[in-house]
């Protein structure tokens, strides 16, 4: 087992707190676990921790921090020492709601991370008690009924340096990547587990730093992704990319923009990596130009838009990243 067990929770910022909350509760079907000032704590029915998403009102959309759970107290110490060695460590805090001491750091691109080990398991109230003792919460089937946080895709001005940091300081494995003809890196699909991707870096078309591309929530079937698309449609949620299958990591996807402007994916599929010597799959510029798995081409905004948004008057996306 790697020193990082999995990612999450994640704190997401929104300028339209009420409408974003309605999206996560009514459309994605998440449960409110608690509230604290400007933050609402949300969970999927399969999340074992108390919450996987902290939704916080803010002037701008984007990601405040991404949590990483270490696999043991020793693993936490090892990773903190490794991060400190890079000079990117910021220090310990008491930790967020339901969590023990957390070590805060930034990746080379400037995204905030919180590394922790101790956390509380979810203890459902009576009305959310499941029938089966191996399930954290009752399945209610409201909205898209997402099960859990699955993966996080952040944007980086320089993919390579953040990808190397994730591998060297955090111990992530690199399963897939995109290398452009000029030798630069346009994307890296990293994982701390056998899941084909957990933490993804893709190139920021504006060369901006610290931005979010999307958060992805898991459902068990492709049919649920299609049903989520119908829900997005009838709830006025902008569908940026209708359901299809990615070539990279082979995830089945639906991408929409929640009312606060953040891109949210409902996902399933993908593959597991059982091979401890799995060779990194490198995709070329020409291969990427063929589109997604079934030849569908994603819209341009998918390769340029992120949160917080970049003021289009001040910046022009770099054409090479438009793939
Ligand atoms: Fe995704």
Could you please describe the fold and organization of this structure?
- There is one protein chain.
- By secondary structure, this protein is of the alpha/beta class.
- It has helices at 17-27, 73-86, 159-168, 222-234, 285-288; strands at residues 4-14, 31-36, 39-43, 53-57, 62-70, 89-93, 102-106, 112-116, 148-156, 173-179, 185-191, 199-203, 212-218, 238-245, 251-257, 263-269, 281-284.
- The longest helix is centred in the N-terminal third of the chain and has 14 residues, at 73-86.
Which keywords apply here?
alpha/beta, 9-stranded mixed beta sheet, 8-stranded mixed beta sheet, 5 helices, globular, disordered C terminus, binds fe (iii) ion
Strand numbers in spatial order across the main sheet? 14-15-16-13-9-12-11-10-17
Low-pLDDT segments: 319-323
Mean pLDDT: 95
Q: How many strand elements?
A: 17
Q: What percent strand?
A: 25-35%
Helix count from the secondary structure assignment: 5
What kind of oligomer do you see? single chain
Q: In angstroms, what is the radius of gyration?
A: 19 Å
Q: Helical percent range?
A: 10-25%
Distance between the termini: 34 Å
Distinct compounds present? fe (iii) ion
């Amino acid at each position: 087992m790697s020193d990082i067990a999995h990612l999450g929770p994640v704190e997401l910022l929104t300028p339209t707190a009420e409408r974003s909350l309605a999206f996560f509760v009514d459309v994605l079907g998440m449960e409110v676990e608690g509230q604290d000032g400007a933050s609402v704590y949300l969970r999927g029915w399969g999340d074992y921790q108390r919450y996987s998403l902290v939704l916080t009102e803010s002037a701008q959309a984007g990601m405040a921090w991404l949590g990483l759970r270490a696999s043991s107290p020793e693993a936490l110490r090892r990773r903190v020492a490794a991060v400190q060695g890079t000079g990117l460590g910021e220090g310990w805090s008491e930790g967020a709601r339901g969590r023990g001491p957390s070590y805060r750091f930034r990746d080379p691109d400037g995204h905030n991370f919180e590394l922790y080990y101790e956390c509380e398991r979810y203890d459902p109230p009576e009305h959310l008690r499941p029938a089966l003792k191996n399930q954290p919460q009752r399945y209610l089937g409201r909205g898209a009924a997402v099960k859990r946080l699955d993966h996080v895709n952040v944007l980086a001005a320089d993919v390579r340096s953040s990808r190397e940091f994730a591998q060297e300081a955090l111990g992530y494995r690199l399963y897939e990547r995109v290398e452009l003809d000029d030798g630069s890196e346009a994307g890296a699909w990293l994982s701390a587990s056998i899941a084909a991707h957990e933490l993804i870096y893709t190139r920021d078309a504006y060369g901006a730093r610290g931005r979010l591309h999307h958060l992805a929530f898991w459902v068990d079937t492709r049919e649920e992704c299609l049903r989520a698309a119908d829900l997005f449609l009838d709830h006025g949620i902008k569908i940026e990319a209708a359901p299809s299958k990615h070539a990279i990591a082979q995830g089945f996807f639906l991408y929409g923009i929640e009312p606060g402007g953040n891109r949210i994916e409902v996902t399933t599929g993908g593959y597991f990596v059982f091979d401890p010597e799995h060779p990194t799959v490198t995709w070329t510029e020409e291969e990427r130009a063929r589109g997604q798995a079934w030849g569908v081409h994603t819209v341009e905004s998918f390769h340029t838009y992120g949160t917080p948004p970049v003021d289009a008057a001040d910046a022009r996306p770099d054409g090479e990243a438009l793939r």
